[in-house]
Structure formats: C-alpha cells, structure tokens
Write a structure and sequence with these properties.
Layout: H1 3-19, H2 36-81
Length: 116
C-alpha cells in the first residue's frame, strides 16, 4: 500500500474521531424559506383545475350513459316493430346448417336412415 494513502487515511480517521458527532447548524433563516403567497395561489389554482376536470368528466360520463340507454331502447323498439324474418324459430321456418349433425336426414338406430 502506498505510504501517502496510509497517512491520509489515518489523518482522516483521527479528524473524524476528534470532531465527534456533527450537529446541524441553522444557517438559513426560516422566514426566508416560507412558501409564501405564490405557492398558495399555485396550490389553489391546481385544486380548482382538478375540481373542474372532475365536474366535466362526470358530465361526459352521464352523456355517454344516457346515449347508450337511448340506443339500446331504440334498438329494442326497432326489433319489436320489425316483421320477423323467414326462418325464425317463432314462425316455424327452418334454416339448415350444413355443419350441424342434428339436422339433415333422420338416421335410425341402425344407421341406414328411413329406408325400412
């Protein structure tokens, strides 16, 4: 180890040991660092902006909710007034689905159909 670094290290340890625990010094006047009127105005304006934004958001959410209710009501009224299409279950019509194994020709238990 370098003898100069050793000497500096020992000197710094002795200086810290002699000085003891450092105590805080009050070098700044507390009256000079008070928030003041400017900080109050900024905080007040920020609170005012937040209140206005919440009020506006509430209005917009109510409008969206009312429009959704009106659209669903219009859709229900339109479906009730529209004549049923052919093939609906209510009219007795049948639509064939080629992928549905339940539809198509009737197959008896022996798998040959209605040929008997």
């Amino acid at each position: 180890m370098n003898p100069h670094l050793l000497a500096i290290s020992l000197a710094s340890k002795r200086w810290v040991a002699e000085s003891g625990t450092p105590s805080p010094t009050n070098s700044v006047n507390p009256d000079d660092v008070a928030p003041g009127m400017g900080a109050f105005v900024i905080a007040f304006l920020l609170a005012l902006v937040v209140i206005v934004l919440i009020w506006s958001m509430t209005r917009h959410l109510r409008r969206v909710q009312l429009r959704g209710q009106a659209q669903s009501q219009d859709l229900e009224n339109h479906e009730a007034a529209a004549p049923p299409e052919s093939g609906d279950a209510e009219t007795g019509g049948s639509q064939s689905d080629p992928d549905d194994p339940e539809q198509g020709e009737d197959v008896s238990e022996n798998g040959k159909g209605d040929e008997e």
